[in-house]
């Protein structure tokens, strides 16, 4: 069976739907383009190329090899070598199935490119393969941000893929397209929305309890096309509250304002933040972003973990609880 048929059948098995496999496309005649993996190597994603090439017999490697002559089969979001070596230790030490899943998530099915003004645009990734998981394909979220530099330079555009900034876009390959990104897209989503992620995050149990107790938690389960951003104080952050602050959170109206002060009505990845940026929280209050050599803060509170992608948005972890002005 040709690649296109195999892939469509695989997709249907994952999605749990019935479909008829299309005929394989005709290879482009006299194409001088190289396959995706070779293009990744040429644009400087050498470690990315190496990790896939070394995964002998893997589902992903077979897909890429079998599709080498078929245009538009896949879109690679290839991290730079620097991005890999700057990634957390758990990423650099990955092996086996865990590494395979990570690499699968860096490929979109079909053509994903020419992003232009697209934001919150979702492309289904190759992760998970139908042989390994019962989840539907997990989406790669594309966002476009205008970043302020200075009064002289004004704004410039940044495009991200699940939080990773795209450094070089739309490099053509014989079987698709390659985008070079500035970080590893990690952690990868496993099908959880915001409430589901919180329910399974042991260090966010206090926040989860308060959101549920104040009838906010279920409202965080939104359509993926209308995502949210959550600045999530950890249990340690709540343990640092004064007695007076703890008392304030016992009042439902005050607690609701404080909790919704931690939510934005759009997906904001770290690459979309800039110094002195003003955000509007779901509570209606303003949040000031500050970025510098010491890190990034929102409303004066430091972000400790960045860009956790879920199906309906993005999550950060906070070292302290934010209180709106006047509360």
Characterization of the model:
The protein has 327 residues and is of the alpha+beta class. The protein is 28% helix and 27% strand. It has twelve helices and 14 strands. The strands form two sheets. A seven-stranded mixed β-sheet has the order 2-1-7-6-5-4-3. Strands 9-8-14-13-12-11-10 form a seven-stranded mixed β-sheet. Strand 6 and strand 7 form a beta hairpin. Helix 2 (36-42) packs antiparallel against helix 3 (46-53). The longest helix has 13 residues, at 3-15.
How do the strands and helices of this protein lay out in sequence?
Layout: H1 3-15, H2 36-42, H3 46-53, H4 59-66, E1 74-79, H5 81-85, H6 89-92, H7 96-105, E2 107-109, E3 121-124, E4 139-150, E5 154-161, E6 164-173, E7 176-181, H8 194-199, H9 205-213, E8 228-233, H10 235-239, H11 243-248, H12 252-260, E9 263-264, E10 278-280, E11 286-292, E12 295-298, E13 301-310, E14 313-318
Parallel strand pairs: 1-7, 8-14
Antiparallel strand pairs: 1-2, 3-4, 4-5, 5-6, 6-7, 8-9, 10-11, 11-12, 12-13, 13-14
Helix pairs in contact: 2-3
Summed up:
The chain is an alpha+beta fold and 327 residues long. It has helices at residues 3-15, 36-42, 46-53, 59-66, 81-85, 89-92, 96-105, 194-199, 205-213, 235-239, 243-248, 252-260; strands at 74-79, 107-109, 121-124, 139-150, 154-161, 164-173, 176-181, 228-233, 263-264, 278-280, 286-292, 295-298, 301-310, 313-318.
